[in-house]
Amino acid sequence: MKGRQKGAEMIFSSIHTQDDYSNYPKAVQRAIEYLKSNDFTKMQTGVYEIEGKLLYAQVFDAMTEPVSDRKPEVHEKYLDVQFLVTGREKLGFTPDTGNYEVDERFDERDLIFYKKVENVSVYSFQQMYTDHRLQMENLWK
Predict the structure, then answer these.
(1) From CA 131, how far away is CA 88, in angstroms rounded?
(2) Which of 14, 20, 92, 103 is an S-S bond match for 115, by CB 3.0 to 4.6 Å?
(3) Ramachandran bin of 124, using left for φ above 0, alpha for ψ from -120 to 50, beta for the remaining angles
(4) Tens of pLDDT along 69-114?
């Protein structure tokens, strides 16, 4: 688990910008195109396969919770492209050094919760990438 931070990137953007996505991994480019071409306000909650289990959208309604009620999470196999359709959200980010103590692990969901993390940067979002999740396997290969 050491060195997981190597090659890690965080991208902040909006589907409404004219950003040049050509430097992003191809799977991220396909995810952004999917976000741009679908009206998430009309989609039911659930999982939408885009490229089978390799690339899919998980649509859900979420209520913001106090930070004290949330646990830091990480994925080893998948990465999230977060998309906020309506409302506001705050997300915290920190590099995963591989030194944090695991609280819970769900291998079948590629989900690890840590007890606590350090050096968290918090960002506020309004109608940007957040509530709807696209998960992609092995993006950086």
Answers:
(1) 9
(2) 103
(3) beta
(4) 888 988 888 888 888 887 787 888 888 888 999 999 999 988 999 9
Q: Are 83 and 130 in contact (CB under 8 A)?
A: yes
Pick from 9, 139, 7: nearest CA to 77: 139
Place of tokens 């409404």: 16
Contact partners, residue 27, CB within 8 Å, separation at least 6: 54, 55, 136, 139
Is 115:101 a contact under the CB 8 Å cutoff?
A: yes
Q: Is 55 exposed, middle or buried (0-12, 13-18, 19+ CB in 10 A)?
A: buried
Highest mean pLDDT out of 47-56, 115-124, 125-134: 47-56
Q: What stretches of the chain adopt beta strand conformation (E)?
A: 46-51, 55-59, 73-74, 78-83, 88-93, 102-106, 111-114, 121-126, 132-137
CA gap 111, 29 in Å, rounded: 23
Alpha-carbon distance values, 9 to 43, 88, 137 (Å): 29, 23, 15
72 close to 116: Cβ distance less than 8 angstroms: yes
Query: For the purposes of burial, counting CB atoms within 10 Å of the CB of 69, is it exposed (0-12), middle (13-18) or buried (19 or more)?
Result: exposed
